[in-house]
Amino acid sequence: MLRPLQESFFEQRALELTYRSNDVRTVRIVEPHYLLLSWPAWYLLVWDHLRGAVRMLRVDRIESASVQAATFQVRDSESMLATLGDIFAAL
């Protein structure tokens, strides 16, 4: 599962992933922009095409991932983090 994440980062290509949040599984197309650590969990800061918004996904909740043909430009980290508000206070 780490190989598609690595490839997606370096090639700036979208990922299709299956994500589990509690007991709900969703298939999403995301643009992975940044990898964050809030010990003990790693988070992927993404633009989520399903939600049309910035999301922070726990890496350990990604069940599968495959690199897509679609490419993207890396977005500014400050603007992406600003849209998340005080999410870090909850971590």
Describe the protein in words.
The chain is α+β, with helices and mostly antiparallel strands and 91 residues long. The chain contains three helices and five strands. The chain has helices spanning 2-11, 77-83, 87-90, and strands at residues 13-21, 24-38, 41-48, 53-58, 62-71. It has a five-stranded antiparallel beta sheet with strand order 4-3-2-1-5, with helices on both faces. β2 (24-38) and β3 (41-48) form a beta hairpin. The two termini are 24 Å apart.
Q: In terms of structural class, how would the helical and strand content be classed?
A: alpha+beta
- How many DSSP-defined strands? 5
Radius of gyration: 12 Å
The quaternary structure here is single chain
Overall geometry: globular
Low-confidence stretches: none
Distance between the termini: 24 Å
Mean pLDDT: 88
Strand content: over 45%
Arrangement of strands in the largest sheet: 4-3-2-1-5
Q: How much helicity do the residues have?
A: 10-25%
Jot down its keywords.
five-stranded antiparallel sheet, alpha+beta, 91 residues
Secondary-structure topology with pairs:
Elements: H1 2-11, E1 13-21, E2 24-38, E3 41-48, E4 53-58, E5 62-71, H2 77-83, H3 87-90
Antiparallel strand pairs: 1-2, 1-5, 2-3, 3-4
Compose a concise summary of this entry.
With 91 residues, this protein is an alpha+beta fold.
